[in-house]
């Protein structure tokens, strides 16, 4: 489950770097919760073809995150923003630090 959310977050950050087909299939699988078989039927390709495209997309997304680290920073900012909204005044220093290091 956690990996699914992580890949979904990576798609939000880096999805536009994937080709259109890989992005669409991966979004169907992770964001729309369709099975490989359902996607294959909708797209008119084999289940294995869908799986291969999604696995390649996952590798690309993970490589981009390893090189750039923007998703990690985005998730940290989101968490700190929630803390700040809850009244934690010290969170703003961390938010500013992350933004300055982008």
What is the compact description of this entry?
The protein is mainly alpha-helical.
- What class, by secondary structure content? mainly alpha
Tell me the total number of β-strands. Answer: 0
The average pLDDT is 92
Report the portion of residues in β strands: under 5%
What coarse outline follows from CA principal-axis ratios? elongated
Structure description:
- The chain has six helices and no strands.
- The two termini are 29 Å apart.
- It is an all-alpha fold.
- The protein has helices at residues 2-14, 20-30, 36-43, 47-68, 70-85, 91-100.
Key words describing this protein structure:
102 residues, mainly alpha, 6 helices
């Amino acid at each position: 489950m956690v990996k699914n959310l992580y890949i979904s977050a990576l798609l939000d950050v880096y999805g536009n770097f994937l080709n259109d087909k890989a992005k669409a299939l991966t979004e169907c699988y992770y964001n729309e919760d369709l099975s490989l078989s359902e996607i294959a039927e909708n797209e008119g390709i084999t289940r294995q073809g869908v799986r291969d495209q999604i696995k390649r997309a996952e590798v690309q997304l993970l490589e981009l995150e390893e090189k750039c680290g923007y998703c990690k920073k985005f998730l940290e900012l989101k968490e700190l923003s929630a803390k700040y909204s809850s009244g934690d005044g010290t969170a703003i220093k961390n938010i500013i630090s992350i933004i300055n290091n982008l």
